[in-house]
Each structure stands twice: as structure tokens, then as C-alpha cells.
Design a protein that fits this description.
There is one protein chain. With 505 residues, the chain is mainly beta. It has four helices and 35 strands. The longest helix is centred in the first third of the chain and has 16 residues, at 2-17. It is globular, with a radius of gyration of 25 Å. InterPro entries: Pectin_lyas_fold, Pectin_lyase_fold/virulence. It comes from Pedobacter boryungensis. This is Pectate lyase superfamily protein domain-containing protein.
Length: 505
């Protein structure tokens, strides 16, 4: 009896002394969470704030991806390749009228193996390719040939509407703002598609020191006329000569570096309301270093308001999904890029590659890549990579070269590196990889986050992992807060900004 009493007493003492471990939350000095859950943005000395990244992806997050009605069902050709079968179905659906929601309809690929020796092309709006799941519908890039397997593509180009260009009058337009003053707003109206044009100038390149990259064979110094940046936006309000736009400014625009202008623009050839979902896509290959096989699983070129969801790709040499520079407002979600096959060097293994504007990559997984979640030269934001995992990495995640602008890397978990740095003479002279690059609550082996010599800054907020100098020493440090301290609030910046925006609406 006494033994039982002693045991009960000991248990009671343990219960009394036990205190649950509560993770201590902390906030960035740049973004505070108000009592009602809304966000407060704290400007720096120049007036810059971390921009709102929530207006990205399919219809900028204002419309949900829907289950489009099936209008055509096909079964794999089990006795040969299915390329003509699938292309014929696409061409047939392309002749159907577009419904009130913008769709012609979905093509359902029933369970089976679809062997494709070439490339499947979708060149009309409103067409969805849908499988019955990654364990059911399987597309195989057969045989030889370095190619994209599924290509969504429009035509035309972004065009300036003549006689609409006006100057922005503000001496300094800060990062994060949605409005600015122009010399004459009478040419514009609410709903106009515009370009915010930021010219490249000699003085800017000189201050960036990109006119004196340490040369080696093939190194090309930056030239001003190659850095005329065109950010696509829509006017949401006009008050006198003050114009408000739908997505924020993501790069400092200063008079001393040429200021900025706006003009009306059109891109009539883009296709829209297209997508691919619920399937497995694989490339045949000869050896682990084979270079002559399927290269990209899904490519978007001159496309807007589209999606990829619930696909798994394996063995492609370059990417699961690659978005070209003239595509925008695409969501890529709930997908995997696994086990790339190629030699491990430049121009290969960019699992989820983005060169476009206003795109969202979320809930993704990558293995055996060089650059798992990556942007290219002059990739103009906002763009977002959220809740993505990378393992068995061979290089780094982040802006790859030549001034990507406005990217959020939010809750990225990698056994490799995330770097935002001066890449110097790598490639043909990559130089400064990006500006307004924000790492939020990421886990890394190590990271280098540096500020360029001019034009803005980069952020590492709550990064867990080693901090190192990057490729080149002596570069300005980026903004670092609470390295290796978990518990940043909000946990996800993208989700918090999205929820806040929808709450305000």
C-alpha cells in the first residue's frame, strides 16, 4: 500500500513540475501582425516595404481552379504510340465553342500508358488535359530527342499601344507601393492593361558594377538596352494624375537611374484557361547521363491564367514545368519532379523553372536537381514559391542570374542551398542574380543572401541553416533577421497576405 502511495505521489509531482514546451513566436520588424490578424507593413528609411505577393497564380488568386466538364474521353493505344490519338482529340476539342466560363472542355485520358515519341501541342484556349491519377494515367516520352513533351503555346507579342507613353513624375517610387503620379493620366482609364517600364541606364549598371565583371572566355558585360524592364499591370483606380495598379512595384525606381514610364499594352495572341492535371509523366532514357531524351514535361509559352496540378514527372533532363518569359498568372501545385537524368552541369535539372510574371508554385517536391525552384534572367515579379521541398540537390535554389525582380521563397525546405548573390562571371556573366528576393521561414543547408550595390535589397527572414559568404566575398550583406530561430509569425507570408487581401474584399 505504502509503495502504491509513493508511486502516486511521484506521479503527481511529475505532473505538477511538467510544463508544456510552447514555441515562442516572433515577428519581423518589417511586417507586424495586428490584433485582428491583419498585417502592418513597416517601411525602411527610403519608404520601401516588403511587397504584397498574394496577387499571383491563376487569376491572381481571385478564382479557384475548377473541375472542367469532360467533352472528350480517350483510351491509350496499347499496341503502339498514342501521339496522334491525343493530338487529334486536342484538335477536335479546339474546334468547340468557348463557354461562358472560358472553357471548351476537358479531355479525359483513361487509365493506361500513352507512348509519345514527339510533342503534344495545345494552341487554343479553354482546353484541359486530365488523367485518372498518377497511378492510372501514364504518359511516356519515348525514344530519342531532347524536347518538351506537352507544350501550351499562343502567339504574338507584348505590344505598346502608340501615343500612350507617359512619365512617372515621382523622384522615387518605393518597393511595395501600388500607386504613383504620372505627367498626364487623361489617356488612361480603370481596367487598362499597362506596362510599368523601367529603363536600363549606364549609371545604374556602373553603380551595380556589372560593367566590370571579371572576364573569362565568353563573359559579357551588362548593356543598358538589354535591361529595359517591362512589368505588366492593370489600372485599378485613377485620381487626377495618380494611378493605382493591381500589383505592387517590386523594384526601386529612381530619377537618377532613368525613372520610369507607363504605357498601354496588349498581348492578343496569348491563350488562356488551359491546364494539365492528375497524371504521371515519364521520359525514357538510356543511361543516367543520357542527354538525348525528354527534356521538359510541361511547357507554357505565351499563356495566361492556366494551371498544372497533381502531376508527377520522372527522368526528364531539364524540368517538370517550365514557364517562359511571356507567360503569366499560372499556378503550379501539388506536383513532383523526380530523378532527373542528364549530366550534372549548366542548363540542366531546373525542376520548376519560372521566367514569367505573376506565377505561383506551391506544394511541390523535387529530387536530384541542380536548381529545383528557380527564376531566370530578368524574371519580373511578383512571383511565389511556397511550401516546396528539395532533396538530393546538386546546386542551389533561388534567382539564377541577371536581375530577377520580386520573388518570395516561402517555407522552402532543402538539403542544399538557397542563394541570392552576385554570381560574377558564372555562365556568360550572370552577375547580380536578383533584387527584392524574400526568403521567409526557409530551411537550408546554407544560404548566401546579399544586397546588390544599387537598386534595392534582399531579405532572409527566419532562415534556418548556415549563413555563408556566397561565391564572391566583400558583397553587401542582405537583410537578415533571426537566423536559426523558428517561430516567425505569420508562419507563411504568402498565405497571410492572401487571407488578408480576401478579408479586406
Amino acid at each position: 500500500m505504502m509503495k502504491k502511495i509513493l508511486l502516486l505521489s511521484a506521479a503527481a509531482i511529475l505532473l505538477i513540475s511538467f510544463k508544456p514546451v510552447v514555441k515562442k513566436l516572433w515577428e519581423s520588424k518589417y511586417i507586424k501582425v495586428n490584433a485582428d490578424g491583419s498585417l502592418k507593413y513597416i517601411p525602411d528609411a527610403k519608404g520601401n516595404v516588403i511587397p504584397d505577393f498574394s496577387r499571383v497564380g491563376y487569376h491572381q488568386g481571385d478564382k479557384n481552379i475548377v473541375n472542367v466538364a469532360v467533352v472528350k474521353t480517350i483510351n491509350a493505344n496499347e499496341n503502339g504510340d498514342s501521339e496522334q490519338l491525343l493530338q487529334s482529340a486536342i484538335d477536335e476539342v479546339a474546334q468547340l465553342p468557348i463557354n461562358k466560363d472560358g472553357f471548351r472542355g476537358a479531355i479525359l485520358l483513361k487509365k493506361g500508358v500513352y507512348k509519345i515519341p514527339g510533342t503534344i501541342h495545345i494552341t487554343k484556349s479553354g482546353i484541359i488535359l486530365r488523367g485518372e491519377g498518377e497511378n492510372a494515367t501514364k504518359l511516356i516520352a519515348t525514344g530519342k530527342g531532347q524536347r518538351s513533351l506537352i507544350v501550351f503555346s499562343g502567339d504574338g507579342a507584348l505590344k505598346e499601344i502608340p501615343n500612350t507613353r507617359v512619365k512617372i513624375e515621382d523622384k522615387f517610387v518605393p518597393v511595395g507601393t501600388f500607386s504613383f503620379t504620372v505627367s498626364d493620366a487623361s489617356k488612361f482609364k480603370t481596367g487598362d492593361d499597362i506596362v510599368v517600364y523601367r529603363p536600363g541606364t549606364d549609371s545604374w549598371i556602373k553603380d551595380l558594377q556589372m560593367d566590370r565583371i571579371e572576364a573569362r572566355d565568353g563573359t559579357k558585360q551588362w548593356q543598358p538596352n538589354e535591361y529595359n524592364l517591362q512589368f505588366e499591370r492593370e489600372i485599378t483606380k485613377i485620381e487626377g494624375n495618380k494611378i493605382t495598379i493591381d500589383n505592387p512595384i517590386v523594384m526601386e525606381m529612381e530619377k537618377k537611374y532613368g525613372g520610369a514610364e507607363i504605357f498601354k499594352a496588349s498581348f492578343n495572341g496569348r491563350i488562356n484557361e488551359v491546364g494539365i492535371e492528375n497524371m504521371y509523366i515519364e521520359s525514357e532514357y538510356a543511361t543516367d547521363i543520357d542527354e538525348d531524351h525528354g527534356w521538359v514535361a510541361v511547357e507554357f509559352n505565351k499563356v495566361e491564367n492556366a494551371w498544372v496540378r497533381n502531376i508527377t514527372t520522372r527522368y526528364f533532363g531539364y524540368a517538370a514545368v517550365s514557364i517562359k518569359s511571356n507567360s503569366k498568372q499560372i499556378t503550379v501545385k501539388d506536383s513532383k519532379c523526380l530523378d532527373a537524368k542528364s549530366i550534372i552541369t549548366g542548363g540542366r535539372r531546373y525542376s520548376f523553372n519560372n521566367d514569367g510574371q505573376l506565377n505561383l508554385f506551391m506544394n511541390l517536391e523535387s529530387t536530384e536537381a541542380r536548381h529545383d525552384y528557380v527564376t531566370g534572367a530578368k524574371t519580373l515579379g511578383p512571383n511565389v514559391f511556397y511550401n516546396c521541398k528539395a532533396t538530393k540537390t546538386h546546386a542551389d535554389i533561388g534567382p539564377h542570374h541577371r536581375w530577377a525582380v520580386g520573388t518570395l521563397f516561402d517555407n522552402i525546405n532543402t538539403d542544399g542551398e538557397i542563394n541570392v548573390q552576385d554570381r560574377g562571371n558564372w555562365g556568360s556573366g550572370h552577375g547580380w542574380a536578383g533584387v527584392t528576393q524574400v526568403l521567409w521561414n526557409c530551411k537550408v543547408k546554407r544560404a548566401a543572401v546579399q544586397n546588390p550595390w544599387a537598386g534595392g535589397q534582399n531579405y532572409s527572414l527566419g532562415t534556418q541553416g548556415e549563413k555563408y559568404d556566397g561565391r564572391l566575398k566583400g558583397r553587401p550583406d542582405g537583410v537578415w533577421e533571426n537566423q536559426n530561430q523558428a517561430g516567425i509569425n505569420p508562419k507563411s507570408l504568402y498565405l497571410a497576405q492572401l487571407q488578408n487581401r480576401k478579408k479586406v474584399k
